[in-house]
Amino acid sequence: MSVPMFERGNDMKLTVGSISAFPSNLSVCYLETRSTTYACVVQKTQVHTVNWDNKNESVSWDSINISDTSTDKPVNVLQAAFVLPNARTLPLLVVGTMCGAQIFDIRTQKLLQRQNIDIGLDEPDDSSFWNSFCRGISCNDNTILIGTSFGHIIQFLCTGETSISSKKCLKVEFCFDSLIVCCRFLRSTAHRLQLHITCVYIRLVSLALGYLMTAAERWSGHHTAEVEHSASIADITTCRYDEITCSGDCSGTIIVWSKNIKGVQLKIATQHPITVMNILRKQVIVGTVRGRVLFYSVSGGELMAEVCAHARSVTCISVAPESAYVLTGSEDGRFIVYKLHTRKPQAYQVEYRFSDELPNCAIMGAQFTNGRGSNIAVACFDHNAIYGYRIVKKASV
Questions:
Q1: Collapsed DSSP state (helix, strand, coil) of residue 173
Q2: How far is Cα 141 from Cα 84, in angstroms, rounded to an integer?
Q3: Which residues, including other chains, have CB under 8 Å from residue 137's CB and lie 6 or more apart?
Q4: What separation in angstroms does the CA of 91 have from each of 25, 63, 242, 263, 376?
Q5: WD repeats located where (predicted)?
Q6: What is the DSSP string of 39-79?
Q7: 379 has which bridge partners?
Q8: Going edge to edge, which strands form the sheet with 153-158?
Q9: Highest mean pLDDT range out of 188-202, 203-217, 283-297?
Q10: pLDDT of res. 58
C-alpha cells in the first residue's frame, strides 16, 4: 500500500467568526527572512489575519473591521490578500470591497491608501453602488493591482515602507487617430460611445471628424480600437520569477500584460467563465465555474491541457514554483495536487499526485504555504478554522 503524499497537520481556529463564501478566500504569504507565514480570510465586513512560525508554535490571530472611509459604515469585503512589494520588508494587506480598494500596514493595521471604485467613471449612477465590487489582487514589482466589476484595474505604486500612491486605472480604451475615448466616457455633441454588454458591440461616432465606425472587438487598418476587459475582473495573478502578469474576466478573456503593465502582450479568448487563475512556468492556469482546470501557454496562447478536475466551481489555484506543484480547490469539498511537467524533451504533462475531500465542506481557499509546496492550508465556507496539511516524509531505510 502506497503512502499518501500529504497528511493532516495542525489546524488554526479563528478566535471569532467564520469564513465567507467567496472564491480565493484565503491568502498566504511566506516571509523566508523571518521564517514567518502570514494568512488572511474574509468574513462579511471583517478580515481575520494570522501569522505563525515554522514549527506552528507561535500562532497569533487578529481582526480588522473594514468600513467605507466616506461614511464610516461597515462595508462588505469580497477579497483580501497579502502582497509583498520589493520596496517593503513586511507584506501589505490589500482589501477589495463593494466601494473600492484599501491597503493596510499589517503590523500597525493603519490604513495607508485607498481608492473608491467610482474613480474614473464619469457618469456614476445609483445602480453602480449595488453592482460594483473589487476583486482580483496581485503585485508586480512595486505596482499593486486590483480588479473591478467595470473591467478597470486599479493601480497603486509602493515606493517605501509607508509610501503608497495611486496611479491611473487600466481601462478599456478605443483609439481613433488622436481621438481616445474611454469606457463610460462623458457623452458630448462631439463624441458618443455606446457599449452593448451582451455582444460587446461598440459604436464610436466622431461628429467633429465626420466618421462612423462599428466593430465587435477590434478595428483593423489605419484607425484601430482595442478592447481589454469588457466584463468584470475575476482574478489577477503575477509570476514574480518571470515578471508575468495576467488578468481574467468573467466572460473568459485573459490579458497577458507587458512587464511594465503599460501594454497588452497577448489576449486569450478561453470561452469559459473564469473564477480564479495562477501562473507557473509560463503557463497561465485557469479555474472555471464548471470545475475545469485549463492550462494555457503565456507565450502563444495555446491550450496545452484541460482537466475535468471538480464537480463544482473551482474556487482557488495555488502553485509551488520550486517543485512545480499545482493545487486546486473547489466548492465540491475536494482539493487536488498536480505536478506540472513542461521541461523538454519530456512530454507536456499534468500529473496527478494527491487529493483529499473534506466532507460537507465547500472549499473557498487552498494554498501552499511555501514555495516548495510542503505544506497546505485550507479554508472552508462557514467553518471557523484553517485546516493544515503537511507532506509525508519518506522513512529512512
A1: strand
A2: 9
A3: 27, 79, 80, 81, 83, 94, 96, 144, 145, 146, 147, 236
A4: 17, 16, 20, 27, 20
A5: 307-348
A6: EEEEETTEEEEEEEETTS---EEEEEE-B-TTT--B--EEE
A7: 365, 386
A8: 134-140, 143-148, 153-158, 164-170
A9: 283-297
A10: 86
Q: In terms of Cα–Cα distance, which of 376, 378, 374, 377 is closest to 394? A: 374
pLDDT tens digits, one per residue of 284-323? 999 999 999 999 999 999 999 999 999 999 999 999 999 9
Q: What is the pLDDT of residues 129-174, one digit of tens each?
A: 557 899 999 999 999 999 999 999 999 999 999 999 999 888 655 4
User: Which cell numbers in the block locate residue 225?
Assistant: 480600437
107 φ, ψ to 5°? Answer: -80, -45
Contact 213, 130 (CB under 8 A): no
Return the DSSP state at 348.
P
Q: Give the integer Cα–Cα distance in Å for 246 and 238.
A: 6
**What structural domains does the chain harbor?**
6-171+228-391 (2.130.10.10), 172-227 (no CATH)
For cell 465606425, the residue is 213
Is 108 buried (19+), middle (13-18) or exposed (0-12) by CB count in 10 A?
exposed
Three-state secondary structure readout of 152-171: CEEEEEECCCCCEEEEEEEC
Helices (H), the chain: 128-131
State the cell numbers at 251: 466572460
Number of H helices, E strands in the chain: 1, 34
